[in-house]
TrEMBL record:
Keywords: Acetylation, Electron transport, Membrane, Mitochondrion, Mitochondrion inner membrane, Respiratory chain, Transport. Its main location: mitochondrion. InterPro entries: NDUA7 (IPR009947). Accessory subunit of the mitochondrial membrane respiratory chain NADH dehydrogenase (Complex I), that is believed not to be involved in catalysis. Complex I functions in the transfer of electrons from NADH to the respiratory chain. The immediate electron acceptor for the enzyme is believed to be ubiquinone. It comes from Heterotrigona itama. One of its GO terms (cellular component) is mitochondrial inner membrane. It is found in: Mitochondrion inner membrane. One of its GO terms (biological process) is mitochondrial electron transport, NADH to ubiquinone. It is a peripheral membrane protein. This is NADH dehydrogenase [ubiquinone] 1 alpha subcomplex subunit 7. Belongs to the complex I NDUFA7 subunit family. It holds the Pfam family CI-B14_5a. Complex I is composed of 45 different subunits. The keyword Aminoacyl-tRNA synthetase does not apply.
Length: 60
């Protein structure tokens, strides 16, 4: 079976050394100003609170 090089179409593949993209800043480039950042349920998780203790359950 002949060897089939995966890069046989090197002219159609983009170069690996490309400059980083220049994306303009928008209203959401800072996560603290994003609306869903304040409503994220994962950030509102707290440690569990004690509702009843064993003494209260035994006393009835």
């Amino acid at each position: 079976r002949p060897f089939d090089d995966g890069l046989r179409y090197a002219d159609n593949i983009s170069a690996r050394t490309q400059p980083p993209p220049l994306v303009p800043f928008g209203p959401y480039h800072k996560s603290s100003k994003v609306y869903y950042y304040t409503r994220d349920a994962r950030r509102s998780v707290e440690s569990p609170s004690v509702i009843y203790t064993a003494d209260q359950l035994e006393a009835g």
